[in-house]
């Protein structure tokens, strides 16, 4: 379980509290600048809050030795770049302890044909998939045991619809094994379909946290994003439509 207790960082986060159970996929949503990336860094133990505390399995994440944390917690940041012009497979293995990424991971992110290519020659979406493999390969032993925590900042950014679907289905499979995924997302309908629990941020504050059917109400979404929505239900799946101004 991941417990956030009154997390505060001056001018960025204000008193955020939430609980994310093991095996859950939690989506963090909110406008640009709402604090999603900052909160993910706190959850990953990469940023110490000025107030409050993040705990993983009752232990303060910032008190964990870095090698231990790196063994079960993977972090994927926005727009990450490789420091050296090296083949993708060497880049991944550097983080994975020189072990080759598992075939299942390569297939899920569809990077087999990219492994021999220099990272600098990949498209934006290809780099994104390679970086996701790098993140998950680092903690693969924990993933196989269902003990990993994956903190993913906008993992769908730059991915085409096929690779978005492949990633989301793969993350669902990892959660079913007991792993925990915390990710930021800008597509409300994707979150409605694939998130087990959500956290809505507004100006660094938590508007609501909990299951989708509790947090994805018209009132909460309108408060979070500042526009009006229409919500329908199609085959037990929420369909959320922003209302556009008349031409």
Short descriptors:
247 residues; alpha/beta; 6-stranded mixed sheet; 27% strand; nucleotide-binding; ABC_transporter-like_ATP-bd
Question: What is the compact description of this entry?
Answer:
Residues 4-228 form the ABC transporter domain. This protein is of the alpha/beta class and 247 residues long. It has helices spanning 36-43, 66-72, 88-95, 103-109, 124-138, 140-144, 161-176, 188-194, 212-215, 218-225; strands spanning 2-9, 13-20, 25-29, 51-56, 59-60, 73-76, 149-152, 180-184, 197-202, 205-210, 229-234, 237-242.
Describe this structure in words.
This is ATP-binding cassette domain-containing protein. The structure is a single chain. Helix content is 34%, strand content 27%. The protein has 247 residues and is an alpha/beta fold. It has one domain (2-83, 146-242): 3-Layer(aba) Sandwich (Rossmann fold), CATH 3.40.50. The protein has a six-stranded mixed sheet, sandwiched between helices. It has a four-stranded antiparallel sheet with strand order 2-1-4-5, with helices on one face. A two-stranded antiparallel sheet has the order 11-12. Strand 7, helix 7 and strand 8 (180-184) form a beta-alpha-beta unit. The longest helix is centred in the last third of the chain and has 16 residues, at 161-176.
